[in-house]
Amino acid sequence: MNHQLRTPSSATAAAAVVNNDPTTRRNNYNGRTATTSSNYRMIIISVISFLLGLQFSQLTALFQADFTVGGYIDNNNEDVTEYMTWAPDEIENEERVIINNHRHRDEKEDEETTMKQQPRKKRGRRNRKPPPRYHTDNYDIDNFKPLPWSLPRPSPIRYQTSEEFMKDYIALKRKNGIPLPWEQTEKYKDDKVTLPRPIIGLNFPKSATLTMSEYFRCAGITAHHTATPDGRIGICMMENHLTNKPPMEGCNTDQNNNGDIKSLEVIFDIGLQGPPCYYASLHDGGLENIAKHYPEGTIMLVTRNSTKWAKSITGWNGKIMALWAEEACHFDGSSLDGEGMEYWNDLFTSSPGKLSRKKVKYWIEFYEAHTQKIREFAMKHLSLTYVEVELENDKMAEQLEYYTGVTQKCVQVCHPGPHWIRKHDTTSKCHPVGEEPPEIDPDADDDSTT
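RESULT FIELD:
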């Protein structure tokens, strides 16, 4: 048997013979085509799978997301709100409603939190003008030290009626040769009021302070109650008293609707329960400061039945009684050094009632002592003109006309405070005598501070 050894050249030649065979060439082409198609299919399947996987991961993130004010935030703290675009409309709309509801709720909570953190502003009108010069905002309990005050112990002059006292007062003036203004017809014939100015009313609150200021307004002269364009009368008088200035300096002008400025002639309700607390007729030196700077002026007092007044003021405003007693004024006689304080403090503590507004008996004594102090002062300062009338006296209007020259028709029944106006379904706080709204209770509570 002969064996022939193949060389490389012979192997190459053999392969060429095979490849040139038509059947072999067809089989090789078909194999390559099948392989390429299979690769394309695998690529397409991979791409589709990738895209489906991407969408599925985003869908999972969507339903695991948290709602926030800014939009949809997933657990990786990324905004995925944009992926709502592929969701069905009903899902998108529903989810957006939820987002908006949460947004509004959170915004409201943020706003409420901010408001709680900010200091509370005082209620008042928007664009409020700066306070006037004499304003209570300049004082508080911590920076105001109560001023010393005094009232006399009982004497016979305390228990006189207003008519009885005025008879004695007029007799003393005549005895000393001092003319009475209301008898000087020639001097006051061209004047609207037969009294020297200024006229300073010393009435306590709930003692016709508004009635008297309206009475003089009706006469056609300038009159103010409680405050002037410059602020509270009581603060103005206090600061002037403490600096030895005329009581009305800095608060002695009035401005009408046309802008005309006139000298202020009449003031009533000149006290302030505080802080600061000041009443010229109670605090030491207040009356003396009036006499010093207005030696020929007029002081007036309208008195009431002391029991009616005490019940009226204690039932009107409990806060004012607390300020009068233990808070701002110390009219209970405590925490103050001064003449008679021990007497008044003993009287206060021994009076029935735990609260200051319940101590009606004490405030009756307090009111009567106040009237007594003013009467004694008038008797010692005869250059001043003093006029006193009693509110419950049926002849009060007639007496006022006699002393002032102002017609008694100008006397009205006045009740300060919007509460009274609403309660009685009326539009005015003052009415002519006999023309008041029905069922008026003169001691009814109102929310005025006068």
